[in-house]
Specification:
The protein has a single domain, classed as 2-Layer Sandwich (Nucleotidyltransferase, domain 5), CATH 3.30.420. It is 42% helix and 25% strand. Strands 3-2-1-4-5 form a 5-stranded mixed sheet, with helices on both faces. The radius of gyration is 14 Å and the shape is globular. The relative contact order is 0.24.
């Protein structure tokens, strides 16, 4: 049984450009942040990382509209990256390795089955996904 269902999202104005990230358990329990020069993918990953760090030692379901994030764990891309010295299937260095490394460490530390990932289609009317999108976009725009 999951302790927390957490929605996450990242946004970027330009790519690269000012970016924001956000996670939310509810409309009263959430966090968001800003980076001045970043990419959308980095913000997606940062949102999940910040949520996992906040709820360490709890069983989590991370709901994200980022296929990049969700497929990494559902399709075990991370295992291939580690065994291939952080090279992707095209034998190129994995982008965002610094964040991926920390995210994967948290995932492994939590133990098998304690952090799960689920994809949700973005901008499809899912209330909490729309909420974290608003928070991340606002952070990117305002620098807060």
């Amino acid at each position: 049984m999951t302790d927390k269902i957490i929605y996450t999202d990242g946004a970027c104005l330009g790519n690269p450009g000012p970016g924001g990230w956000a996670w939310a358990v509810s409309k009263s329990e959430y966090d968001s942040g800003f980076e001045a020069q970043t990419s959308n993918q980095r913000m997606e990953l940062t949102a999940a990382l910040q949520a996992i760090k906040r709820f360490e030692n709890q069983k989590l379901l991370i709901v994200s509209d980022s296929q990049y994030l969700v497929r990494c764990f559902k399709d075990y891309w991370w295992q291939k990256w580690l065994s291939n010295d952080w090279k992707n299937s095209q034998r190129q260095p994995v982008k965002n390795q610094d964040i991926w490394s920390e995210l994967i460490d948290c995932y492994l530390k939590a133990g098998e089955g304690n952090i799960e990932f689920q994809w949700v289609k973005g901008h499809s009317g899912v209330d909490m996904n729309e909420f974290v999108d608003f928070l991340a976009t606002t952070s990117a725009k305002t620098g807060n």
